[in-house]
Design goal:
Elements (H helix, E strand, L loop, with lengths): L21 H8 L18 E2 L5 E5 L4 H6 L6 H13 L6 E5 L6 E2 L8 E2 L4 H18 L3 E5 L1 H8 L5 H4 L4 E5 L2 E8 L2 H6 L3 H19 L1
Parallel strand pairs: 2-3, 2-6, 6-8
Antiparallel strand pairs: 1-3, 4-5, 7-8
Helix pairs in contact: 3-8
């Protein structure tokens, strides 16, 4: 009989600790083998920030710099996000930031060439869902800012379209909890935009909606 590897089950559930706070969760996540993404990634990139944050920011997945450093939103998109948050009236130090998927998924055009981000599949997002569910339960934020389409699909289902609901306050049941959410674009999309200034102003406007919802 062939024994299946844990990652073939596509669920992080067996790797979650029975008890403990965010520190215990982060430690357990470092050993997650709940889907095949761990094989190529450097390390698990878990959430970080204020453990009692009123606002949780949920992105898609770690990027190249995040994968190397082991922290979310430390690359160019993270720096832009911090600037936009501050401009909108949300102190980045008061937030908790995480991703729907905790391992970097990438492709390479050639061996040893730059690693190019590749969007995680719905199956991979679902596999990683138990980590995000536990983070939400432990932090208990008043508001979730959804950064981009992939994070939105992970939280709200495959029919989510960020362009249709960005900058609005939604109320939905997420992992058994009633949550308020404000969707917006991922900051990396601002960096890729042909009109970066207009895209940045749109991100700040959406985050101002979040700031008002918290006031």
């Amino acid at each position: 009989m062939v024994t299946k590897a844990p990652e073939d089950a596509y669920t992080a559930e067996p790797f979650l600790p029975d008890r403990g706070g965010l520190a215990a969760l982060r430690k357990a996540a470092a050993g997650c083998r709940g889907c095949p993404l761990h094989r190529e990634a450097t390390q698990t990139v878990f959430g970080t920030g204020n453990p009692h944050a009123r606002v949780m920011l949920v992105g898609e997945q770690p990027g190249d710099q995040e994968d190397r450093q082991g922290e979310p939103f430390v690359g160019p998109a993270g720096k832009l996000l911090d600037r936009a948050l501050a401009e909108a009236g949300i102190d980045p130090a008061d937030a908790y930031v995480t991703n729907a998927v905790k391992h970097f998924k990438f492709t390479r055009a050639e061996p040893r060439k730059r690693r190019i981000h590749k969007a995680p599949s719905l199956r991979e997002m679902t596999a990683c869902g138990p980590w995000l569910a536990r983070e939400l339960a432990l932090v208990g934020p008043e508001l979730i800012v959804v950064l981009g389409a992939t994070a939105g699909k992970a939280l709200l289902g495959s029919s989510f379209r960020v362009t249709q609901v960005r900058g609005t306050v939604l109320e939905e049941e997420i992992h058994g909890r009633r949550e308020r959410l404000v969707p917006t674009v991922h900051p990396s999309s601002v960096l890729r935009s042909d009109d970066r200034e207009a895209a940045y102003r749109g991100l700040v406007a959406d985050l101002e909606v979040a700031a008002r919802a918290l006031s």
